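Lab channel / #folding
Pinned by the channel admin:
"Please post every new chain as: sequence first, then the structure tokens as a reply. Keep commentary short and put observations after the output so the thread stays searchable."

First post following the new format, from NK:
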Amino acid sequence: MDQIELVHSGKAQMDAPLRDVPVSDLDPYSTEVLSNPYPHYAELRRLGPVVWMSRYGVYALPCFAEVKDVLADHATFCSSAGAGLSNFHTEKPWRHPSILLEVDPPEHDRTRQQMVRVLNPASVRALRPQFEAVAEEMVRRFVDLGECDAVPELAAAYPTKVFGDAVGLRPDGRENLMPYGDMVFNGFGPVNDRFRTSLANAAAVPGWISDACKREYLTEGGLGRNLYAGVDKGEITEEEAALLVRSLLSAGLDTTVFTLGNAIVIFARHPRQWAKLRDDPSLVRNAVEEVLRYDGTFHSFYRTTTRPVEIAGVSMEKTQKLLVLTASANRDAKQWPDADAFDITRKTNGQLGFGFGIHACVGQMLARLELEIILTKLAAVAGSLELTDEPEQHFNNTVRGYRRIPIRVTAR
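Reply from TO:
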């Protein structure tokens, strides 16, 4: 617990920036903002491409051009200082930093190469028959229920099953995965009550995660066990392999669960778009990209300057934290006309829901496969999706999704 208190609380580095830089006292981690962040993002974009966030002493980047440029320049805007508000170069991390997400080249290249080896296109394609069989069964049961909560019945059930099996996790204990991810993603923000609560709720989880990542607990042929091939070749250590499996678990489940839930809610609120997908399943890949653009799961993360630099005319010193608002960038009308509209026929090339640059989500092919399969199967048998009550949001400092989605589904 002593380590936890060292996480960035948002109290430091509060000096006002140079004049002529727009200033906002918005708290992007407040429940009010997280409930509906998009009007607040629009206001930040209206203020300018760089906005000083006075509550946390960071510059926010709400517009597409600057977000993409920063993510593309890993040498100037590093990840090794942490992908969250805490600066690992000056503060003690509350957990062991990710050896994939929170390291810079050349170390990053060595560990990412192991993930790319395991998550190559051929290995992901090989999972399709298994994923489709599970989707077929779960979707038919979901539609047969008529009315239910879509989260436990589909949005959480499907990724937990297929992703857990693909990694090679033992069947028991998978209920620990979501609390673990919740804790990790809350930790990217400030030390607020939300983070403390998720930490308390997941008190017993790290022990299970630690065991689940060990070679002997992973099934032969699974993605997790395959990462240990790098140990046998002398390319990584046993400890590094376990940490890479941990990265797979922390980033590969919650985000897909929430994205699938978001998709269900979005389509229920846009029945004409659901009808388009139902009538033309070839739109499914584009539909996934539009869901990620319109209301993606990952809303923000941080980069840190490695040298004095200027962004959109604003000069910054070395070690300055930058709040990179990818979800705001995905609603930038300069990039996508009528950006606040949901349209699965839109050209969504370049959406930033999976990040960009060398730290873009390494498992995005796997996530896309899961989402494309489940939406295709659902569109084949579900005539309509109708919310029977307002969905209950799951509040997290970094990711956006739902804990409850009351829905009525009618068969085609």
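NK: The domain at 4-411 is CATH 1.10.630.10 (Cytochrome p450).
TO: also worth noting, Residues 230 and 236 are 6 Å apart (CA to CA).
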